[in-house]
Write a structure and sequence with these properties.
663 residues; mainly alpha; 89% helix; disordered N terminus; coiled coil; structural constituent of cytoskeleton
């Protein structure tokens, strides 16, 4: 029994062979470099056991194209996020503008409050002057009344009458002046109420602006929350893409390892094919020798055994219990090994169907990823609509602020004109009424309330200024971080471009190697088909040759038995006394027959010796062919080691490239 039949390869040894590892690494490198996608996945790529590495590479390219599309969508999401950040910056700028406008309004309000305080002080001074004038007029009135009374009590003269009339005229003038002062005081009170109403309206407008500022703050918070949510979704989608890429690489490695196992089985079949070719040659030689034996032996009654099995343990025995040779048993073991190889090929097909199911799950995961992408696009559109609504709302607020500014300017113009009129009227006033005291007390209360409101507004403005400074610092930090990231991305893009150029050149070389391997694969498949056909014909011829050898042995046994029988008869006849001529003739014929039979037996022995010599020569040729095959396999293993080194280098470049794509 040969060494090939003794050491049958196990699946573990086939999985860890250098040919498998080198082929898997090279095909992984080529598949990962050729990555680019199609929209519809091909589910029937790994169904047949004869799927070439090019088909697996096409599947890998399709998956990598999907990965590139996902990265593009991630870039689009990042651009949208940057656009949202710019819009948030514009909103922050608008908020700062509103705060500055609020400060201006507050400063104007403070100026107006100071003007009102000055007016109150002037009114107080004028009121005190009017009170003094009123006291003086009362005293004058009392003096005039006393003077008129004394004149009435005393006698009347012309001078006294003239003085009385003049005093009465002065009294009438004073009374008229008092009436005019009362009317002017009423007008002042009405003007004061109007000014108070205007200040209340101004306070309402300020409160409205504060509410609008709060609304803008809430909108800004919502925008930041939306931005954070989009960033989280972006990170989740990136993690899903990384998971799918790792899954794809795992499936590709699995399919490539199975393809390598298939190639190793094919190489085993090719080695067995060489042995079958040698056995076919020996079969032809034996058939020619059998035909020569037939021609020499003549027409004999040959019996064929059609029910003889061709197994390892069964042995066809002749009448004298002669067994097969060792070479025949070896041929049966090769047939059994072929059946085992077929069973292993069926197992590989089952594993390939499992890989196909994994590919289907991968396509379903890719479809789920596209659905998630569509959902992300819908959410981004909703965010854009919300941002547009906020921008329109901000525009409305800005328009309302401009309208408020215009109304404030108009009210200031009206107020300035009214103040001029009041100042002109206040110069004409000489006396004031007691009602002004009540109005002054009310004004003091209003002033205290306005002062409290001013303190609250000042505290709110300080808080707002602190928040604005914090936002500015945060914006500066973000801008510096963005600049650093841009510089790093530029460096990475340059490195990525260099590695891509190197990987493209390496990809072309590996593609040419793969084309050569595919051509060799096709040639080996053709040779396998030829060897299978030759093996079938060899089996038929070999079985027929065994039957003929068996029949020849039976014929030799029959002739030997007949010869023995004739020898016995001759001996019995030679022992009897000599008889007639007919007995002598019969004995002579028997002697001649025995001589002929002995000659035939010697010829058959010589032919058997020649056949044994030919078998030894065929065994020697087979051993030489095995040595040549070992040399060829050593050369192939050296080439496979070189390919393995190149694949490891390429795998390193591919790993760096995948790291760059993830970044």
């Amino acid at each position: 029994m040969s060494s090939r039949t003794k050491s049958k390869p196990t699946p573990e040894r086939r999985l860890t062979s250098p040919a498998v590892t080198s082929l898997s690494s090279s095909t992984i490198a080529v598949g990962a470099e050729e990555i680019s996608t199609s929209q519809e996945p091909d589910h029937n790529i790994l169904t047949s056991s004869s799927s070439s590495p090019a088909v697996v590479n096409a599947e890998i390219t399709r998956l990598h194209k999907e990965l590139v599309a996902a990265t593009k969508s991630n870039k689009i999401h990042s651009s949208k996020i940057s656009r949202l950040e710019s819009e948030a910056k514009t909103l922050r700028a608008s908020i700062t503008k509103l705060t500055s406008e609020k400060k201006e309004i507050q400063s104007k309000k403070d100026e107006k409050s100071n003007v009102l305080l000055q007016e109150n002080n002037s009114l107080k001074s004028k009121f005190s002057a009017a009170q003094k004038e009123l006291v003086r007029l009362r005293r004058r009135n009392e003096e005039l009344e006393s003077a008129t009374g004394g004149i009435i009590k005393g006698g009347k003269s012309e001078t006294q009458t003239t003085d009385v009339e003049s005093l009465r005229n002065e009294l009438k003038q004073v009374q008229n002046a008092n009436k005019n002062l009362k009317t002017e005081m009423k007008k002042l009170s009405t003007d004061y109420e109007q000014a108070k109403q205007q200040t209340d309206e101004y306070k309402r407008q300020v409160m409205k602006m504060e509410k609008e500022c709060n609304v803008l703050k809430e909108n800004n918070k919502k925008l930041t929350a939306e931005k954070n949510r989009i960033e989280r979704e972006h990170k989740d989608s990136r993690q899903q893409i990384d998971h799918l890429t790792s899954r794809n690489q795992h499936l590709v490695q699995k399919s490539i390892s199975l393809g390598a196992e298939k190639n190793k089985l094919k190489s085993d079949l090719y080695s067995q094919q060489d042995e079958y070719v040698q056995l076919r040659q020996t079969n032809r030689k034996l058939a020619s020798e059998k035909n020569s034996l037939k021609r020499r032996s003549g027409t004999f009654n040959i019996r064929i055994d059609p029910t003889a099995p061709l197994t390892k343990d069964s042995v066809i025995k002749s009448d004298n219990s002669s067994s097969r040779t060792i070479s025949e048993i070896e041929d049966t073991t090769t047939v059994i090994e072929l059946e085992n190889a077929r069973n292993e090929i069926d197992e590989l097909r089952n594993q390939i169907s499992i890989i196909q199911n994994d590919g289907k799950t991968l396509t379903e995961a890719n479809q789920q990823l596209t659905k998630d992408k569509n959902q992300l696009e819908i959410t981004i559109k909703e965010c854009q609509e919300r941002i547009e609504q906020l921008v329109s709302h901000n525009k409305q607020l800005i328009d309302e602020l401009e309208n408020l500014k215009a109304t404030n300017q108009q009210s200031e113009i009206n107020r300035s004109s009214r103040e001029v009129e009041l100042s002109a009227k206040m110069q004409e006033l000489t006396t004031l009424n007691s009602q002004m005291q009540e109005e002054i007390s009310n004004l003091r209360q209003d002033y205290e309330s306005v002062k409290d409101n001013n303190t609250l507004l000042i505290s709110k403005n300080e808080h707002w200024e602190n928040t604005v400074t914090e936002l500015r610092e945060r914006i500066e930090q973000l801008t510096s971080r963005n600049q650093q990231l841009r510089e790093e991305s530029n460096k990475l893009t340059t490195q990525y471009g260099e590695r891509v150029n190197y990987s493209n050149t390496r990809e072309k070389q590996l593609n040419s190697r793969i084309m050569e391997l595919e051509q060799l694969n096709k040639q080996l498949l053709d040779q396998i088909n030829l060897s299978n056909r030759e093996r079938d014909s060899f089996k038929q011829n070999y079985s027929q040759f065994e039957r003929e050898i068996h029949d020849c042995r039976e014929l030799i046994d029959r002739l030997s038995s007949q010869n023995q029988h004739l020898m016995d008869e001759c001996n019995s006849k030679y022992t009897t006394p000599p008889g007639s001529d007919s007995s002598r003739n019969a004995s002579n014929a028997i002697v001649q027959m025995s001589g002929d039979l002995s000659l035939k037996v010697t010829e058959l022995q010589q032919q058997n010796e020649e056949l044994s010599k030919k078998l030894t020569d065929m065994k020697r040729e087979r051993d030489d062919a095995k040595g040549k095959l070992i040399v060829c396999t050593a050369k192939m293993q050296a080439q496979i080691k070189e390919l393995k080194k190149e694949a490891s280098q390429y795998r390193f470049t591919l790993a760096s490239r995948t790291d760059l794509t993830a970044v």
